[in-house]
Amino acid sequence: MKKLFLLLAAACVTLSAAADEGMWMLPYLQKMNAKDMKARGCKLSAEEIYSMNNSSLKDAIVIFGGGCTGEIVSPDGLLFTNHHCGYGSIQALSSVEHDYLKNGFWAMSRAEEIPAPGLKVRFIRKIVDVTSDILGAVPDIAGGEERSRLVAEHAEAVKSRFETENPGMEISVKPFFGGNQFFAFVIEVFSDVRLVGTPPTSIGKFGGDTDNWMWPRHTGDFSVFRVYAGPDNKPADYAPENRPYKAGKFLKVSLNGYDEADFAMIMGFPGSTQRYMTSYEIDRMLEVENPQRIFIRGERQAILKEDMAASDKVRIQYASKYAQSSNYWKNSIGMSRGIKRLDVKGRKQEQEAAFRAWAAKNTLPTEGYVDALDKIRESVEENLPAFASRQYLQEAFLRAVEILTPARYALMLKGEELERALKSFYKDYNMPTDRRVAKRMFQIVKENCKELPSVFAEVIDKEFGGDTDAYVDYLYDNSVLADETQALAAAASGKDLAKDPAVLLSRSVAQKMRALSEAQRDGQQKYADGHRLYIAGLMRMQPKKAWASDANFTIRLTYGRVLPYDPADGIRYNYYTTLKGVMEKENPANPTEFTVPAKLKELYAAKDFGRYANAAGELPTCFLADCDITGGNSGSPVLNARGSLIGLAFDGNWEAMSGDVAFEPELQRTIAVDVRYVLFVIDKFAGAGWLLDELQFE
Prior knowledge:
about 700 residues; alpha+beta; eleven-stranded antiparallel β-sheet; eight-stranded antiparallel β-sheet; about 45% helix; globular
């Protein structure tokens, strides 16, 4: 175990070398990155970015909701994030009468800010390396179930200790480098978060699915919220008397813009990368995982799109669901394309061959490095049938057939708790749409999934002659959970729903999912051992390389430059776009994605850009930087060399969609909305300039 500790310590003192790859851990900035960042133009010290004992830039960055980043931009808890990050809350607060998605919303005083039920903001208060606490008593030779058990026990003990030492805080203990290192995070959670402002979809989602993951981009992807606290400035449930959170640290805002090659950095919560993925896993991704996801989601999205176009009520109900599904659907398409086009598998195979040669020459068989890749390969091969079936059921049933959600509630919840959950669910549920989706999902599961839930043989085949459409009609005609009134009445009366058709379906699917998970358990243990040893071996094989752990939705820093790029021979993409491009993209034939509000046209025609114009008199909308981000970084602040806000990261580019598996330094770009466009929309378009009085400008 001491060897691994020394190995990780060595990795953390190697200065960053080429390219801009790296989602860097904040505690190691001084050792790993400070010198390189300064050479690139950063004016802040590592201590100013992250400090263990003092206020630092880190304290202005938050987890927004369940999977995005936000930043505090005023002393009174004002928060910027992406429009698509706030989309779920904006949708939940919308109705046909108050369509904030379509028309936008702007509070003209703090009294008009709207509570967003269920929305939470999390501040990282402390980060501690607990590797020795968790791995110190784990024998080097331990593996498989034994190792997993010991690590889990020690991690739980660490979590319990931190909970005792930090009352009222949320504690998260997470593995890094495939389980070779562990950190504990002390998190303060605020649950009174209020919507302050959002542009209409025609600005906040301009370009829609067509422009998603594409450059050039002209999307005003931002929304504004505020964090509220109790009288003691501590987290408190919503109450009218709560007051704006008094921020110990907030970001200054820059109106000075940027030039090509200027330093830029991003701090946020990248969700997941697989940079240590092997060629065996790439085969599974290209041949099974992505094709299944692309097909299933595409089939469901086509149905949702039709129903949303036919009804404003359904459009509002399903807007967030459609957007969440579509985003990763297109990501999977681009990921497969990029991996093939850039021969990522070939590069991984070269690395694996070098690793095998190194391990055979420089390590003992008892250390496990020689067998690491074989363990990964065997795990992937052994688990593939169960993996494929489980993913199919996950996508086609649990992510698509919505009646399974209240069915699960009925199995888990009782009384008032069940009633609350059902009321929340049915607000955004349209039974005819769900019935249409279910018919398609049952058809494709029967045709394509090799491991079927028992409901197919015991009910669909026996009682309906294999006719899945007939079964689905029976399901929705006879389940009380297909109707809000009946469902709430059943919950209020305490009716036993064990024999309800939807509950029986839910149990059947859950049983098959558990069986498929169990079938993969031994292989997953084998994979965990191989993955951990492969990463440790790579670091031992190249001790002078600066290694970064895969993203796991923990706070990271990435830095680079504002840069254009060449997507193909003879094509050069500029590093920023302007409002002119919004006008050029207007397309009456595609009003869902390319509508331009009349007020925006008026401001453009008058060139009424105010202090938000650049030196050339243009209004910048979006820009590029070669920073290393992924999902979860949405809403992250893009900062200049002095740590001031110049934009909000919201996307990556199509040509480098393989970046979660292999960083592409020549192609990979972060797409960000320019903060000057954000402020222009707030001030000139929305007339909510009172909010800007809270900001501090550099």
